[in-house]
Amino acid sequence: MKGCRLTSIIYLTTAVALSLFMLGRNTDAGGRWSVFLLIWLLVSAVPLLFVFAYSRFLFAESTTHGQRKLAAIVGGIGGILTTILFSFLATPFWKNPVRDLGDSVTYLLVAIAVLATFLLAGIFLLLSKKSSLAIVAAILLWPYWLLLALIFVNRWFQDSSVHAAYYFLCFAAPILFTFAAGAAFHRPVVPHALALAGVVGAPSLFSDVVKGNGYDNVWLLFNQPDNRFAIYPLYTVPAILSVALLALALSTAVVRLLPSRWHLGRSSFRDHTWPALVASFVVLASWFSQSVMPYRIPGAVDYSDWPILQILHVEKHGLQFHETCVKVWGRPYRPVSVSFSEDDRRLFQYRFQLTNASGKPPEALVERVRAFIKSPDRGERKSDAVKPIRTWNADGWYLNAEGSGLRVYGTANGTAPPQELVELFQQLNNVPRVEESGSELKDVCLGFCYDPLSAMGLLYSNHRCFNDGHGVACR
Fold first, then answer.
1. Residue 385 phi/psi, 5° resolution?
2. Which residues are 321's β-sheet partners?
3. Helix, strand, or coil (residue 322)
4. What are 268-309's pLDDT values in tens digits?
5. Which of 39, 138, 285, 381 lies deepest, with the highest CB count within 10 Å?
6. CA 252 to CA 98: how far, in whole Å?
7. Integer Cα distance of 284 and 373 in angstroms
8. pLDDT by residue (tens digit) across 368-393?
9. Long-range CB contacts (< 8 A, 24+ apart) of 128-136?
């Protein structure tokens, strides 16, 4: 019974996460979680409550084989027909027959009546294991779910019929997992087979959430600086939970369907849940690492100018970083200003402060910068590789001068920085500063993704990613 309860919880939480994600991706709710959750409780949680109760009723000992067979036929035909109908009705959006029904009083009254039917049937089935409204609610379930999907589909939804079908199958997957959760207490095979059928939600989830496009994904939204988006899009957290829990639920279903003769120690392997947890963790970790490296902020920012000289000095002591970058701006041989950016951050720290300032270099220093840029040593060549610093204690120097590639010195490659570079950095860093300001940056990797290129100002997705002709690549 304990294993059945845990399995039921896994399937049910997966259904909740998927339904929250599919509803939240196209629901604004004013950016307020309280409003969004209230909408979900009304339009999604109520019918899912009925599905859970109806499943327990169907697989109870008092239910006949004929009733189960009829329910399977009605449910199967309903699922197939509504998927086909959605693929034809949902795209393009202007053909959607219910796109404006939200303003209809008649529609609102019908919706209230249907939801009341689901609620009453579900409550009576859970409390007394019988309800005269159960058959009516079961017949209304798939038409209601179709209307719900059509109403909440994105206004810019223009996918092909095949992709529209994938979308609806993902929208319908919570019904399968909820049904499996209710049946987990009564049948050894059926609920796990139904949960495994929930894989129909994977294609849409993979293409819309996991795959991403390099420039933007749900993980990168947590790197938004300051309070540019005070509340993250409502689908962000449910999207992450949906991927993790879908992997967990499908792995659990596979493990539970293994032959009982397969043993691990004294117990049957299919009674264990940890293999499914490991599989889910591997999926989540792989997706996370592919999504957040290298560090970048979603969106595109095109700078009107670019410094003719950048010098970054990184000092790392254990978990602590101190990064100072000086940038010289102007025409190649006419430097006019210097800007400074500086931060003190720690690993395992999500937020950190970046201080910015600017200054006017004296003419003598301008001449030195000019000579440094024109030096024969600055000849154009391939840039050195730049990677995040992982050494416990490190001292790194990074030079980027106009007309030459990026140079790396210090602990990263075991090359001492030229004395001329160090002295020029110190002189530039001593220029009197004006117009100081601060900003907050965030790293969803807790400091492990932020790298020297980020500290040199390459922060946004268009600074780190480009289309190489075979798709988006990030460096």
1. -70, 140
2. 316, 345
3. strand
4. 888 888 999 999 999 999 999 989 989 998 877 777 678 888
5. 138
6. 38
7. 46
8. 888 888 776 666 667 888 888 989 99
9. 129/56, 129/57, 129/60, 129/62, 130/57, 131/57, 134/54, 134/57
